[in-house]
Write a structure and sequence with these properties.
about 280 residues, alpha/beta, 8-stranded parallel beta sheet, about 35% helix
């Protein structure tokens, strides 16, 4: 395990009574998961700090995550949900930014009917407020969204954008060229970062971790040691792997493709990107 204090930049918590997802067919994760459960799952790995990321598109979920941050010292950041197209988005972000753990917003673009939703004029004020408050924009997207994320990044160069789960390439379907070409373009923009997370759940069922190796190599090579951030994506991770296995494999990948960058990718980059008080 790492010889430094790990920061996990992507974990979840939810209470089924207040969720739209997960649904019952996802049996492995169809139960409540709290920040306390995360401590048990990550204890052997030595994770001592984490960023809670929203999983529901409503303000009550953000309230819940901030309450978890208040209750558990290891939760040092919360990426919440705010409707960036709402008339009061700026006011909502200003209010949320008062909480010391609130560090970003994730609008769940993958589930919206318009691939270019984030470019709607109604979102402009909210996006400007994110930059003003130095809040991060987590992009939960598929490769089909990436050209719009490129437009967003060029239009808002002061906005820190992070691609969750490597933009979720269809590893099970063998997607590569289209995803890779778009990632090359995004990696050329200094305000775009990428999470080394979530790839194994895009792979074929019961596949070996090695199937994600080309995608992880591309992320590490394109974005470099200063713009890649590690995350577990726990407990969604449990659908395909487990905390220790994913961490150990990612350490091996970093040692192979970004030697000397382990502390940056598994700790320092998350602290800098999310401005965490660690």
């Amino acid at each position: 395990m790492p010889d430094f204090a790990l920061v996990d930049a992507h974990q979840h918590a939810w209470e089924l009574a207040n969720t739209q997802w997960p649904t019952p067919e996802l049996g492995e994760i169809y139960r409540d998961f709290s920040a306390a459960d995360y401590l048990t799952a990550s204890a052997e790995a030595g994770a001592v700090a984490s960023v809670l990321v929203q999983s529901q598109p409503h303000a009550a979920d953000t309230d819940y995550l901030l309450a978890e941050a208040d209750a558990y010292r290891h939760v040092v950041g919360v990426v919440g949900w705010v409707d960036l197209a709402a008339a009061d988005a700026r006011e909502q972000l200003t209010l949320r930014a008062r909480h010391p753990a609130f560090c970003g917003v994730r609008p769940m673009l993958q589930a919206l009917p318009e691939d270019d939703w984030i470019l709607r004029p109604e979102c402009a004020a909210g996006l400007a407020a994110l930059s003003e408050h130095k809040l991060c924009f987590d992009a939960l997207v598929y490769p089909r969204h990436l050209r719009h994320i490129e437009t967003l990044a060029l239009a808002h160069p002061e906005l820190s954008i992070v691609l969750d789960h490597g933009a979720k390439p269809d590893i099970a379907g063998g997607e590569w060229q289209h995803w890779y070409q778009l990632m090359v373009r995004l990696a050329a923009l200094p305000n775009v970062h990428c999470k080394l997370s979530g790839l194994i759940t895009e792979a074929p069922a019961e596949s070996q971790l090695s199937v994600v190796r080309p995608y992880a190599e591309a992320i590490l090579t394109l974005f470099g040691p200063r713009r890649v951030i590690w995350g577990s994506d726990w407990p969604v991770l449990n659908l395909a792997s487990n905390y220790r296995e994913w961490l150990v494999y990612c350490r091996q990948l970093v040692q192979s493709f970004a030697p000397g960058a382990e502390k940056a990718i598994f700790r320092d980059n998350a602290i800098a990107l999310y401005r965490l008080g660690v």
